[in-house]
Amino acid sequence: MSKFWSPLVRELKPYVPGEQPKMQRLVKLNTNENPYGPSPRVLEVIRQQADDSLRLYPDPESERLRGVIGDYYGVSPEQVFVGNGSDEVLAHIFQGLLKQDRPILFPDITYSFYPVYCGLYGVDSRLVPLNEDFGINPEDYRVPNGGVIFPNPNAPTGRFLPLDDVEQIVAGNPDSVVVVDEAYVDFGGDSAIALVDRYPNLLVTQTLSKARSLAGLRVGFAVGHRDLVEALNRVKNSFNSYPLDRLAQAGAVAAFEDQTWFEHTRKQVIAERERVTSALEKMGFEVLPSAANFIFCQHGSVSGDTLAARLRERGIIVRHFDKPRIDNFLRITIGTDGQNDELLWALGELTG
Ligand code: PMP
User: Fold this and answer.
1) Residues 6+ apart with CB under 8 A from 71
2) Same domain, 101 and 244
3) Rounded CA gap, 236 and 239, in Å?
4) Nearest ligand 1 atom, CA 215
5) Rounded distance, CA 350 to CA 303, Å?
6) Lowest mean pLDDT among 17-31, 49-63, 180-194
7) Per the domain annotation, does 341 fall within a domain?
8) Dihedral, CA atoms, 50, 56, 62, 63, nearest 10 degrees?
9) Is pLDDT at 6 greater than 80 in this prediction?
10) Using a 6 Å cutoff on CB, does residue 265 contact ligand 1?
11) Is residue 9 part of a domain?
12) Residue 57: which domain range?
């Protein structure tokens, strides 16, 4: 605390990202990165792009990238907004669309950045408890609100809400913006982008950090009605007109163009997720059904914080949240088959 801090900064409770340890040879399964690396074509394009043109500003509107994303999802480029990671896109959404007179709704167990944006932008919120099985009940979102946001699949649970239920929430809230944060959708869910042309209040966000393995490049996007996208452009152009640098724009285009790599790596992650899930169940873990690149699980007799600490001693880092309802759970990112083997071996010893 310093006397120079503004009253707002004094009150902020910033997001704490999963640790990025400096140690070598770690099995790092704590921040839901993709273990397989980006498409080689993305790397080639980024290398080519690292030339004299870097003295020039990038395209502020990222037109080519918005066109490629629009083609991929069958929407027009005017329905696509891109930003520096989906976290930045979400920040603009909170400021430009979710800051209303009424409180917004989101699940009690969800992406922990949402309450942080509420603090930063002065957005009122009301937590809607997940049901006993950690699922979202669409009926719970039929109360007056200033907006709705939830991830699908949800984080950190990994549970996917079927598209019919998503539609029920969107259709039941015609006067509020409903944001579906699909950071993990490519690992097993159907995208609500299929619904955007029917619902002017629906905005879907995605990221290239997970299934396209580009967390380090920082590219995310939102798709929705052009009026919603225009709100985001107004915020962006009042904040930073060049959120995506030249390398990020070129690399992101190449990532969408290499469909083969995308399909291959995401299927590997899905297959490994199923393998890890059944192995853990045999060890006495309860594993929530996951449509993401991570699983959320608890053991019948050894506590989550003990397991996280013991795994760490063996150089295996997973995420444990010290929060009500989920403090016995571990969130474990699916790694390469070798990393998953190390994890399973260690958990077998710790719980056996
Ligand atoms: N939404 C959810 C649910 C996430 O877990 C994450 C990753 N922490 C993000 C959005 C943001 O991802 P990025 O900024 O890398 O696009």
Assistant:
1) none
2) yes
3) 5
4) 15
5) 11
6) 17-31
7) yes
8) -110
9) yes
10) no
11) no
12) 40-257
CATH number, domain at 209? 3.40.640.10
Does 25 score more than 90 pLDDT? no
The answer to whether 252 and 64 have CB atoms below 8 angstroms apart is: no
Number of domains into which the chain is organized: 2
Q: Which of 257, 285, 305 is the last residue of a domain?
A: 257
Do 312 and 266 share a structural domain? yes
Q: Which of 110, 150, 209 to mutate to test the pocket of ligand 1 (most atoms within 8 A of CB)?
A: 209
Burial class (CB in 10 A: 0-12, 13-18, 19+), 338: exposed
Pocket flag, ligand 1, residue 34 (CB < 6 Å): no
CATH number at residue 314: 3.90.1150.10
Rounded to 5 degrees, φ, ψ at 149 are -145, 135
Distance 205 CA to ligand 1 centre (A): 10
12 domain-assigned: no
pLDDT digit string, tens, across residues 303-323:
999 999 999 999 999 999 999
pLDDT of 277-303, one tens digit each? 999 999 999 999 999 999 999 999 999
- Looking at the structure, do residues 289 and 246 belong to the same domain, yes or no? no
Mutation to probe ligand 1, out of 106, 207, 210, 213 (largest number of atoms < 8 A from CB): 207
Atom 12 of ligand 1, nearest CA residue: 86
Residue to mutate (ligand 1; options 69, 87, 185; most atoms within 8 A of CB):
87
Query: What's this model's pTM, rounded to 2 decimal places?
Result: 0.96
Same domain, 57 and 158: yes
Residue percentage of the chain with pLDDT more than 90: 96
Domain end call among 207, 229, 257: 257
Residue 160 falls within a domain, yes or no?
yes
